[in-house]
Amino acid sequence: MHSTNPPARTFILLLCLFAAPFAGISQVIQPCASDEMYALEVAENPRREALRAETEAEIQLILRNQRAGDSPESVVHQIPVVFHIMYYEEQDNISDAQIQSALTILNQDMRRLNPDTSNLRAVFKSSAADLEVEFVLAKIGPNGECSNGINRRWNINSLAANNNIKSSPSWPNTKYLNIWVVRGINLSGTPAGTIVLGYSAFPYNGIPGIQDGIVIRHDQLGSVGTAQGERHRTLTHEVGHYLNLFHTFQGGCAFGDQCADTPPVAASSSGCNSNQNTCTNDLPDLPDMIENFMDYSSNQCMNTFTQNQKSRAKAVLTSSQLRGNLASAANLMATGVSGTVNCSPVADFEITNPLLCSGDSLTLVDRSSSIGTPVYHWNVLSASNQVVHHVITQNPSLALPNPGVYSVSLTLQASNGSNTLNKPLSVTVRPVAGTSHSPWFIGTMEDELPNASWATTTFADSSYWRRSGAAAQQGQASYLFQNSKLIAGGEVSALVGGPFAYPNTGTLNLRFAHAFARKASNNNDQLKVSVSSNCGETWQLVRIIPAFQLGTAAIVTTPYVPAASEWKYTSVNLAALGLQSAGNLMVKFALNSGGGNNLYLDDVQLSTTLGNEELVTEPVWIQPNPSRSGAILAGAQGEVRVLDLSGRLVWKSYADGDLALPDLPAGSYVLHCAGISLRWSVL
Ligand SMILES: [Ca+2]
Ligand SMILES: [Ca+2]
Ligand SMILES: [Ca+2]
Ligand SMILES: [Zn+2]
Fold first, then answer.
1. Which ligand is in closest contact with the Cα of 278?
2. pLDDT tens-digit series, residues 57-88
3. Which residue ranges make up each domain of the chain?
4. pLDDT band, residue 33 (cuts 50/70/90)
5. Cis peptide leading into 208, omega within 30 of 0?
């Protein structure tokens, strides 16, 4: 019956609603990829279509029995839900408040308590339905542990999620609706440039956890935080699929979605066109129900499920073969949704600022779960395991005046047990007054990280910076950034050196060795070099080294280890930066991953001897110049115009700090900004 699914029509977004490299690029938004994921499952498993047919037969049997008078009482089904926030950078680790806003919107939409029900046109009022389904955050995890229904995990696949995100963590799908919250979704076979907002599994008897649940972008979830400004309905739509509702345009003008009270729609809708009537074979011929949650209309447009959709969803929730166990009284007790919650405490916390300068306060954020009022025991230990702090407040802020590396542990004592979480060597405190080096400092990269000179800013669960004995430009080792394990997008961790004291910043020069290879010719990795003179409070970008200047020309597909001949040096003259303090110079290396291979750094020299290097003299400058792609205009404020040599305007934008420049055809250009004109060569 549903052996084939028409590919969902997508629509083009010409404006930069999503971050685009520069103005004018077009992105294709695909609101939902549930049909595409189903098609992938069919391709993998020839029995998948038969399983869908079995699901449909089960639903039809239940619906027939209801029509025969076996109609169930009106009952509100509650479903335990767990959100797994799979973050990559801090921006992805969305707040509990944003999750709450998503749940509020979802439950209002489910119960037809949404504020926009009056927008439903009169012709459809009689078919509108309160689905009588509610989603409740689980309070007990699969092992009897306390939970607030929100898990947070660092996961590289957040950038390009599909079912690869479901292996860890996944809670039993017969007990919980699992929702994985990610930055981006990338299904096999989806064209490049497609932005998928979410997808859900359709139920069948025995569906494994790795296929089940919902994957959704965090900027489509709720109405606050990264989803600020709109009442996002993607979750409502995906929950519809989770309860085996189909798109109203399923099968085009044929009777595709198995619901007589949703008029057929030829193809997915977009926007909110109330004049739309794409199928005239319905009797009576009604307009398309663009208000239905199971179309692709805008968030502002959709506002209803129908009675037939409710019957199908309820059938799924009453079938023991399908999702019947979720809403059972026993499961609601087991997951803490109803009854007296009895669970074992779970200690958990986040360190918001793991790299500090002495004088800064260490901020510890409690993420624990327990019942009753637990007692907190925080311990901050020095590298030699001396207790530096022991406090019992929930979210302490602690002074760490002495430079060094520290461990943090939290023991939670609750009425029915205790639990401890250790984060060894998780905090580094740098001295405010830098170690004095004159006439130069040489970073040999021989010691394990972190150490007296080098530390990492790490948001990931494990740092991607390592000491490597496999390659060295100087001595026996270098620092490796394991970029080959990452996928393009973002700066997951930076290497920070210093602070260093210098007698004379007026002649300061930075020189360092680097080795790198690409995995494919189109990798656009960038090494960003920044300096700070206030112990990392603010950073000044001094150099961007694009992939083609960062390493050798060779393409290496296995994890890259450089040969001795493959090291390069880059120098940056810091003299013209006007660094205010000689006592606090810090240097930061951050690789913005573009899909390339490993990066190695060694022999980082800071000297006060002016070398034969290029000077940074302009307050506004283009880097790199000449460039091939990925050029940056650094330090710019205000309007930026790029003209070709005939004076024709080829690009215009507005800068507030660093600005990504467009990839223009090869040639010479003149860039105007803030009264300064710069010559720019594109190779
Ligand atoms: Ca229909
Ligand atoms: Ca019609
Ligand atoms: Ca070395
Ligand atoms: Zn859909």
1. 2
2. 999 999 998 877 665 568 999 999 999 999 98
3. 30-61+73-251+312-334, 349-429, 435-617, 632-682
4. very high
5. no
Please state, in angstroms and rounded to a whole number, the distance separating the CA atoms of residues 437 and 582.
10
Report how far ligand 1's centroid is from the alpha carbon of 240 (Å).
Answer: 14
Ligand lying closest to the C-alpha of residue 250:
1
Whether 54 is catalytic is no
Q: What counts of helices (H) and strands (E) characterise the chain?
A: 7, 36
Distance 242 CA to ligand 4 centre (A): 10
CATH architecture under which domain 30-61+73-251+312-334 falls: 3-Layer(aba) Sandwich (3.40)
Q: How far is the centre of ligand 3, averaged over its atoms, from the C-alpha of 494 (Å)? A: 18
Q: Which ligand is nearest to the CA of 263?
A: 1
Nearest to 100 by CA among 142, 134, 136: 136
Q: Report ipTM for this prediction.
A: 0.91
The rounded mean pLDDT for the chain is 88
Fold of 349-429: Immunoglobulin-like (2.60.40)
Catalytic hit among 36, 238, 291, 566: 238
Is residue 482 within 8 A of residue 447, CB to CB? The reply is: no
pLDDT, tens only, 411-436? 999 988 999 999 988 888 888 777 77
Place of tokens 């957040």: 158
